[in-house]
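Take a sample.
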Amino acid sequence: MSAADSASEKHSTQEKQEKGSASHPKEREAETKWDEHCVTSFDDMGLKDDLLRGIYAYGFEKPSAIQQRGIMPILAGHDTIAQAQSGTGKTATFSISVLQSINLSQKATQALILAPTRELAQQIQKVVRALGDFLNVSSHACIGGTLVRDDINTLRHGVQIVVGTPGRVFDMVNRQILLLDCVKLFVLDEADEMLLVASRTKFMTSSSTFPPKFKYVCSPPPCPRKSWIFPTSSCAIRFASWSRRMS
């Protein structure tokens, strides 16, 4: 079996685990710094009706522990760090939050999700598309190994959610094809690995085309296996002070 086949099988297995995790939770005791109570039903989260249809059609029955604690602070506009084992619904946590935050009448890119590998980026986009099936939301996987002209054509027509890998996204931003002016949410999946890549390649800090609010998340954190979700209106202030403490 090739490395690509092995990676594809791994992510397929992870999708099946995440899809069933809400119905059959096997999670350790969860912790949170979110002051509000955990929301134990998707119906009580104030989600769009068509998003709820997508969630239940995907196979979720009730939120997993990470979803009970992670979705509401994101929707409330807080910078969020979510740490969970594989298969506990972490991808769905930020995917649901992104889909709820999208203005469906606006064609511009409103959410940027970065992942360390093209396989993971494709898997995330697959989850986003499935959960948002009834919303008619547009998404695109902006990854290496595909034709650059296809990315250019798709992004120029307007894509509300972009899921990608650092190299191709960096290229599209430098070409001013991917515009970030309307981005509401910035998600780093596998944040420990993503920030290590950022520190090695100076990704996000080496280009003046990135808004300043994206430049404060490039110090590798001490905690592994996390997803970070940053409402871009506030992350600059909060993570400017965080980066100084880490340096």
In short: The longest helix spans residues 3-21.
